[in-house]
């Protein structure tokens, strides 16, 4: 059955389509890809059980020979040789079984990680804004690992042990038909007990995975905000909060242990041993069985011990793996309103922007961030967007490249609704530099060339010079090979913003959006960067969102936002004459 996966903002290459309708079907769509290893693992498990069944049979035959003199030493030697050969072959089949399931487990863990990571990259910013990073990391690391353990040792031990359950029935019948009563009754009660055990275990293992995710989320938040925690001397409070989550995780693990401690099949196994041995001895006493057959039959009953004891561990691994799969699938299947639109408009971009009656509700579920916004920007124009904090400037910018979608109205680029553009083409032609710059823990050169991985060293240097970043980069010990550290912590705010500018210049976008991107730059550097921006703006449409009114003088057009609406629009000179609000802002500066 072919199952189409949910639409993603970016549908990145996937190895194969998976059935995401339920955790079991999803896992099977991964496992079935390696059916030949699964088949070899199952055959290895069956062969191992059959060869293991030969041991009590041969042992019983040996006892029969010893208990009936004269003892045939040659026959005993042949039985010993067969026993040794059987064990050697059995060891090989165990290797086949273990290798097959372990290979499946490792490959599935790799594939699930890739599928989850691909899905996360394809999610919209709305999704990532609401999703805890710590919980996501817990699912991407620990929950994925639980799926590995579900296959090996989980499924490995279950398939390896299930075949043992049927040996006393199959071979016991050959000794005497009535001898199947005990193993059959045991099998029935065993299945009922396992079914109830899994039912009791499911909510507990779900809680274990949930509690771990919450604990990890709290840890990630505390470490990410460590400067704030230390700055406000809140270490003790954070320890207490983390301790609460850690205790919840501990309690869930303890509860799981309590359920495992009440594993009923262990009691059923003891009863099966007693009744089975009593039955065999009764048949022996009545001359129906010989002593060797009694020994063989009880040896076969001992086969029930392996699946019983293994089930306590193996089915816990299955339950934890399914809980992990549910959490991963929940993340993958979360609704996503944006799509890549692969067949959409992908002609070379000119850079014309138009808003027609646009309203947006992003981050304001009970009101509008932008309300009935309409304006038009010609290709190559430099436009400044100004207004008070919270007036909707950043939201306006992020509607252009579809970081978020409009609630009403339409945003057009080159006369085409942005929702009709191929999303990759749209975003490759639009570069947004935000106030909060993110740099990867890589070299400065890698950060500059992030949007253009194949860029030459000359191109990178030219972009750095254009962004006024070359001097401080070349002055560092490693130059362009210097590692920026996590989030660029080794650099000042102004340096991070100049590297971001260089990254934008290198990709040569048709639309450049600067969202308060010079806020952390000193006055001397700002003059240089303003010249660089002015130079870079030539030939491309540029939007500057800024509180620095010195930059507004450059603009061909100024859009003044107030409470999500356009309060005024025009050039600097026009607004100074016609807009009291703009005049007050400018005079205040």
Task: Describe, in plain words, how this protein is organized in 3D.
With 589 residues, this protein is an alpha/beta fold. The protein has helices at 23-31, 35-66, 73-122, 125-130, 133-175, 181-224, 226-231, 235-261, 265-285, 291-301, 305-333, 393-400, 423-428, 444-448, 457-466, 470-475, 493-507, 523-537, 549-552, 572-578, 580-588; strands at residues 353-360, 370-377, 382-387, 408-413, 416-417, 430-433, 511-515, 541-545, 557-562, 565-570. The strands form two sheets. It has a six-stranded mixed sheet, with helices on both faces. Strand 9 and strand 10 (565-570) form a beta hairpin. Helix 9 (265-285) packs antiparallel against helix 10. The chain is elongated, with a radius of gyration of 35 Å. 37% of the residues are buried.
Summarize this structure as a short list of keywords or feature phrases.
62% helix; single chain; four-stranded antiparallel beta sheet; ABC transporter transmembrane region fold; 589 residues; six-stranded mixed beta sheet; 10% strand; 10 strands
Briefly say what this structure is.
The protein has 2 domains: 23-333, ABC transporter type 1, transmembrane domain (ABC transporter transmembrane region fold, Up-down Bundle); 353-588, P-loop containing nucleotide triphosphate hydrolases (Rossmann fold), CATH 3.40.50.
């Amino acid at each position: 059955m072919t199952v189409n996966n949910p639409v993603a903002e970016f549908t990145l290459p996937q190895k194969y389509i998976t059935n995401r309708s339920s955790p079991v079907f999803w896992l099977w769509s991964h496992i079935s890809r390696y059916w030949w290893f699964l088949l070899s693992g199952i055959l290895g498990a069956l062969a191992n059980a059959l060869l293991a069944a030969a041991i009590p049979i041969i042992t019983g035959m040996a006892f029969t020979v010893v208990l009936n003199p004269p003892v045939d030493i040659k026959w005993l030697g042949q039985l010993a040789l067969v026993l040794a050969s059987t064990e050697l072959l059995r060891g090989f089949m165990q290797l086949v079984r273990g290798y097959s399931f372990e290979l499946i487990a490792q490959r599935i863990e790799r594939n699930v990680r890739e599928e989850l990571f691909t899905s996360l990259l394809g999610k919209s910013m709305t999704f990532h804004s609401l999703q805890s990073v710590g919980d996501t990391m817990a699912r991407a690391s620990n929950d994925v690992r639980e799926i590995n353990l579900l296959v090996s040792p989980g499924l490995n031990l279950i398939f390896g042990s299930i075949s043992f359950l049927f040996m006393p029935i199959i071979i016991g019948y050959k000794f005497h038909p009535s001898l199947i009563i005990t193993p059959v009754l045991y099998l029935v009660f065993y299945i009922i007990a396992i079914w109830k055990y899994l039912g009791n275990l499911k909510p507990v293992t779900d809680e274990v995975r949930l509690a771990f995710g919450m604990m990890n989320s709290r840890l990630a938040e505390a470490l990410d905000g460590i400067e704030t925690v230390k700055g406000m001397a809140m270490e003790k409070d954070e320890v207490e909060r983390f301790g609460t989550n850690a205790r919840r995780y501990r309690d869930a693990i303890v509860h799981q242990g309590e359920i495992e401690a009440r594993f009923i099949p262990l009691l059923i196994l003891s009863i099966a041993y007693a009744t089975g041995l009593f039955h065999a001895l009764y048949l022996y006493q009545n001359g129906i069985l010989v002593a060797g057959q009694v020994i063989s039959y009880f040896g076969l009953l001992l086969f029930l011990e392996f699946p019983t004891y293994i089930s306590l561990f193996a089915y816990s691994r299955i339950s934890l793996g399914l809980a992990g799969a549910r959490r991963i699938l929940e993340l993958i299947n979360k609704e996503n309103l944006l799509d890549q639109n692969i067949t959409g408009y992908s002609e070379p971009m000119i850079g014309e922007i138009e808003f027609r009656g646009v309203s947006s509700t992003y981050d304001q579920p009970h009101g509008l961030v932008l309300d009935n916004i309409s304006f038009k920007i010609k290709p190559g124009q430099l436009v400044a967007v100004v207004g008070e904090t919270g007036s909707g400037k950043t939201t306006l910018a992020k509607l252009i490249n579809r970081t978020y979608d409009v609630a009403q109205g339409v945003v057009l680029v080159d006369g085409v609704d942005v929702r009709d553009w191929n999303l990759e083409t749209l975003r490759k032609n639009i570069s947004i530099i935000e106030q909060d710059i993110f740099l990867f823990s890589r070299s400065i050169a890698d950060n500059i060339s992030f949007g253009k991985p194949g860029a030459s060293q000359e191109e990178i240097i030219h972009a750095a010079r254009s962004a006024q970043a070359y001097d401080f980069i070349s002055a560092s010990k490693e130059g362009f090979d210097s590692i920026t550290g996590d989030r660029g912590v080794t650099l000042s705010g102004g340096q991070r913003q100049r590297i971001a500018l260089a990254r934008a210049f290198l990709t040569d976008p048709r639309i450049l959006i600067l969202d308060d991107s010079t806020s952390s730059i000193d006055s001397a550097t700002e003059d240089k960067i303003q010249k660089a921006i002015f130079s870079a703006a030539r030939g491309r449409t540029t939007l500057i969102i800024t509180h620095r009114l010195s930059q507004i003088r450059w603009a061909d057009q100024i859009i003044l936002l107030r409470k999500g609406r356009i309060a005024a629009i025009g050039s600097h000179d026009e607004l100074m004459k016609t807009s009291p609000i703009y005049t007050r802002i400018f005079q205040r500066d």
